[in-house]
Specification:
This is TROVE domain-containing protein. By secondary structure, the protein is mostly helical. The protein has 23 helices and 7 strands. Among the domains are: 59 residues, no CATH class; 223 residues, Rossmann fold (3-Layer(aba) Sandwich). The strands form 2 sheets. It has a 5-stranded parallel beta sheet, sandwiched between helices. The protein starts with 6 loop residues before the first helix and ends in a 6-residue tail after the last helix.
């Protein structure tokens, strides 16, 4: 650490890391322990953190849009920046505008339309806000599709920015007539707009609509589910195919969802939702899809991490909550396959807290003996899934994926890590990092295992390499200057321009 850095700089760096962890993991939803982190607790905790960081570290608050934070907090940051534009200088507003535009471009359209609704309800109607909204609407590949699928959101946004839809030829006037003057035109040139018109009385037009819109019309016409799914299949998105795949199998329609192209964490959630019998029967298919998704997520880092040992939490608390069912366990399962791809060939070892050796059949069960599993992971042991296979000399990296509630016995994990770092590995030959998928609203952070072990929040396993990079700033060996330089590099890559220092 740079000795010239002031105490204020170090406190600022800690505040930044605290906020980043919260922005990655917290979604305002209830966690497994409602008394510790219920929905209202999370909302109040996030309200405080967003206000605190925006007021005290506005530049960092905006720069967080370039990090791997979740969509819920990204939308909150955009709303906060637009709502408090008067607190920023002209230069800051220009930099924030670039970041907001870049983040809106990667947010899911439904999330952006909900954000625009919040902007309207908050009464944010300055020229810059309207320009940002108009630019995003203009960049949409097919506004007619959006008008059918997200009708209320498009209508709210168009009204707020005073989007001009003058009568005449072209797609924009048709969208305006569709939104604000329904029934005035006898037909539409845009195929989706006209399909929506015909679907009110023509059953054959239902299959031409986006799946979520077509479902309502199918129910209105009394269409059989099997017939509807067969006709709608060509227009389904990948996630819609995944959601309806099991029902298609039951209806005898087969399966056309290519699991290998699914995002890794989403695929892990799908696997965990299957009964054990189906997981076992489809072992080759599911394992192959998970490994393919993991290699894709690893990208250029594949095989570059050396010997990697992982401690993965599949205790009962990994079942999550009613709003986030099996989310912590899905993150652990996805990290298992991703770490296998990141490790050198044949140099990965994954240990589940339950002692189970078959990752595909994991389930939330039992206590959390993290301390015992960490002891096992730090010892030389078999590499791969065969217990009698070749033995490693100890890991180059130890990655712990857990909510941090070590209870069998309580506190053993932290003590093991403290003694290991102070007595057995003071030279830090083994890099240790703790990734926590659960936000602790009471502590305004994710729960930590030990003071000397860097901890980062995680929501999607695909972000693991970047989170391991940012977690090193929590270890205390780098200072605030390095953290801010890292943020500037992320902003520069995200926007293509960077922010002024």
């Amino acid at each position: 650490m740079n000795t010239s850095e002031s105490l204020a700089d170090l406190v600022a760096a800690e505040d930044v890391l605290l906020f980043v962890n919260a922005a990655i993991t917290a979604t305002g939803q209830r966690e497994f322990r409602p008394g510790v982190s219920g929905a209202m607790d999370q909302q109040l905790s996030l309200d405080f953190l967003h206000t605190y960081v925006r007021v005290n570290y506005r530049r960092v608050y905006a720069a967080s849009l370039a990090l791997d934070i979740n969509d819920h907090n990204a939308a909150r940051i955009v709303l906060g920046l637009l709502e408090s534009a008067g607190e920023a200088s002209a230069e800051e507003r220009r930099a924030e505008g670039r970041l907001i535009a870049a983040r809106l471009a990667v947010l899911p359209p439904p999330r952006v339309y909900r954000l625009f609704g919040a902007v309207r309800r908050a009464g944010i109607n300055n020229r810059r806000t309207r320009a940002i909204m108009r630019d995003w609407l203009a960049a949409r590949p097919d506004l007619g599709h959006d008008a059918v699928k997200y009708r209320r959101g498009v209508k709210t946004a168009a009204r707020h920015v005073h989007l001009r839809c003058p009568p005449g030829a072209g797609p924009l006037p048709e969208v305006g007539a569709f939104l604000f003057r329904p029934g005035k035109l006898p037909r539409y040139a845009h195929p989706l707009l006209d399909a929506w018109r015909r679907a009110h009385y023509e059953q054959g037009a239902v299959a031409e609509l986006p799946f979520t819109v077509a479902e309502g019309f199918a129910a209105r016409h009394g269409m059989k589910r099997a017939v509807f799914l067969e006709r709608a299949a060509p227009r389904m998105t990948r996630l819609e195919r995944l959601r309806t795949q099991e029902q298609r199998v039951v209806e005898g329609l087969g399966t056309d969802a290519d699991l290998a192209v699914m995002p890794l964490t989403r695929l892990a959630l799908y696997v965990l939702a299957l009964p054990f019998e189906q997981r076992a029967a489809r072992r080759a298919e599911l394992t192959g899809a998970l490994r393919t998704a993991a290699r894709r997520a690893a990208g250029g880092h594949a095989g570059s991490w050396g010997r990697v040992h992982a401690v993965l939490d599949d205790s009962f608390s990994s079942s999550g909550s009613g709003q986030k069912r099996r989310r912590p366990l899905a993150v652990a399962l996805a990290c298992h396959y991703l770490l296998e791809a990141l490790a050198a060939p044949g140099a990965y070892r994954g240990l589940w807290t339950s002692g189970r050796g078959d990752a595909l059949l994991v389930r939330p069960w039992g206590p959390t003996p993290l301390g015992m599993r960490i002891l096992d992971a730090l010892e030389p042991g078999p590499v791969g899934s065969e217990p009698d296979g070749p033995r490693s000399s100890g890991p180059d990296r130890l990655v712990i994926v857990s909510d941090g509630w070590d209870n069998a016995p309580a506190g053993l994990a932290g003590e093991v890590l403290r003694v290991w770092r102070q007595r057995l590995d003071p030279g830090r030959r083994t890099a240790v990092v703790h990734l926590n998928p659960v936000y602790d609203a009471g502590g305004f952070d994710v729960r930590r295992l030990a003071a000397g072990v860097p901890t980062a929040g995680i929501r999607d396993a695909e972000d693991l390499p970047a989170l391991v990079e940012i977690a090193r700033f929590a270890e205390g060996r780098t200072g605030a200057a390095e953290l801010y330089a890292y943020l500037d590099r992320r902003v520069a890559r995200f926007t293509g321009e960077g922010m002024a220092p």
